[in-house]
Amino acid sequence: MNRRNFLKASAAATLAAGLATPSLAMGGDIVDIAAGNSQFSTLVAAVSAAGLVDTLKSRGPFTVFAPTNAAFAALPHGTVENLLRPENRDQLVSILTYHVLPGQFDASLLLGRRGRLITVQGDSIISDGRSGAVHLNGNTAVTSPNVGASNGIIHVINKVLLPH
Questions:
Q1: Is residue 162 part of a domain?
Q2: In this structure, how many other beta carbons lie within 10 angstroms of the beta carbon of residue 106?
Q3: Which of 108, 127, 101, 100 is nearest to 116 (CA)?
Q4: CA distances (Å), origin 127, targets 6, 20, 84
Q5: Total domains in the fold of the chain
């Protein structure tokens, strides 16, 4: 099998695996999908506290790397509570917008490639899809790719990305 067909087959398998994940609701915009799934309650609270709900409900398209509750829980004790305080809104906005790309990048665009992705926040994320799975900034894995939304795509990740 040549490299192009292998990448297409890998992307299709990854897409199928992501869509087969029963815990992710399909349909609606990015915020609706996250709000409809209990594994994203911390992310939804953070998006609300940062005042980004309307932005992520807008037309887009966006690609969101969505950390789960477990990813937020792995941060040092008190970090999430501190970020949710009104006086830390700018820092929270910076972290959350670091998880968002303008445009729609499904896993097939990231598999087999290594490169920089410029976030809405302005910094870049290093994407490495050469191992047959997509990893960001070296050690953050996309665990459920290609969750479709009416205004973009969500890739579930296992760690919170922190800007440089």
A1: no
A2: 18
A3: 127
A4: 19, 23, 28
A5: 1
Angstrom distance (rounded) from CA 111 to CA 36? 28
78 within domain boundaries = yes
Closest CA to 39 of 161, 163, 157: 157
The pLDDT assigned to 26 comes to 56
Residue 105 belongs to domain with CATH number: 2.30.180.10
User: What is the rounded CA–CA span in Å between residue 16 and residue 109?
Assistant: 15
> Reduced to 3 states, what is the DSSP secondary structure of residue 57?
helix
Residue 163, in any domain of the structure: no
Instruction: Show Cβ contacts of residue 12 under 8 Å, excluding neighbours closer than 6 positions.
Output: 108
Structure token digits, residue 10: 């890998």
The phi, psi pair for 9, rounded to 5°, reads -65, -40
91: which residues sit within 8 A by CB, 6+ positions away?
Answer: 83
Range of the domain at 87: 3-157
Tens-place pLDDT, residues 110-144 = 998 899 999 999 999 999 988 888 999 999 999 99
Residue 164, in any domain of the structure:
no
